[in-house]
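lol forgot to send this yesterday, sorry. struct tokens for the thing we talked abt
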């Protein structure tokens, strides 16, 4: 099966030469994101360490990188090109916790009807946790790491957590125990207690 990585960026700041050789990155007439052939591009090159990468494979879309202002548009483009996909697997991902971009992407995942999953080697933190919460079914494998970070707007984050999980436990936990500069890893008991995984699955850990 042919695979393609879809990249999206965070803004019009970045490397002048690192992405200059990418044929898909072309200057456009307007200073807005533009979807071309599955890619979301901006008029100027963007920093690679602020990008989100998507890799579709069968009914699954794999995500890695930073959740940012272009992530939802990139996700929509990948979904359109892969209509059979129904599950989003987050690998190594982060982003600003409780940001409009992260919560907006989480809502986009929910609206698309996608389940979310963490593999045993997945490591997510901050805004990527908000993205994970968007899943209609949320499962993790033993070994996955979830790191919490304090947010700037605790009230908005609580409202989002309640919308996605039926309670604001995760957001309150992040505000009280999350790291300020570095993510604070949650224990498996904390993950189960805070509504991060789907309550109706009967078990915190998935087998596949």
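and heres what i got for the seq, position by position
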């Amino acid at each position: 099966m042919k695979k393609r990585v879809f990249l999206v960026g965070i803004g019009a700041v970045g490397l002048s030469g690192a992405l200059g050789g990418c044929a898909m990155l072309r200057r456009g007439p307007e200073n807005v994101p533009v979807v071309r052939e599955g890619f979301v591009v901006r008029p100027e090159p963007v920093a690679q360490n602020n990008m989100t990468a998507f890799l579709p494979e069968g009914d699954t879309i794999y995500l890695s990188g930073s959740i940012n202002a272009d992530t939802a548009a990139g996700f929509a483009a990948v979904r359109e090109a892969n209509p059979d996909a129904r599950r989003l697997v987050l690998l190594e991902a982060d982003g600003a916790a409780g940001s409009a971009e992260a919560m907006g992407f989480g809502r986009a995942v929910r609206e698309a009807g996608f389940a979310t999953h963490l593999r045993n080697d997945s490591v997510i933190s901050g805004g990527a946790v908000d993205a994970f919460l968007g899943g209609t079914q949320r499962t993790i494998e033993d070994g996955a790491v979830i790191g919490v970070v304090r947010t700037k707007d605790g009230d908005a984050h609580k409202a989002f957590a309640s919308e996605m999980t039926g309670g604001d436990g995760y957001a309150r936990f992040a505000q009280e125990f999350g790291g300020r500069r570095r993510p604070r890893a949650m224990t498996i008991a904390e993950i189960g207690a805070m509504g991060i995984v789907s309550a109706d699955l009967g078990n915190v850990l998935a087998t596949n």
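Confidence is low (pLDDT under 50) at residues 1-48. anyway ping me if u want another try
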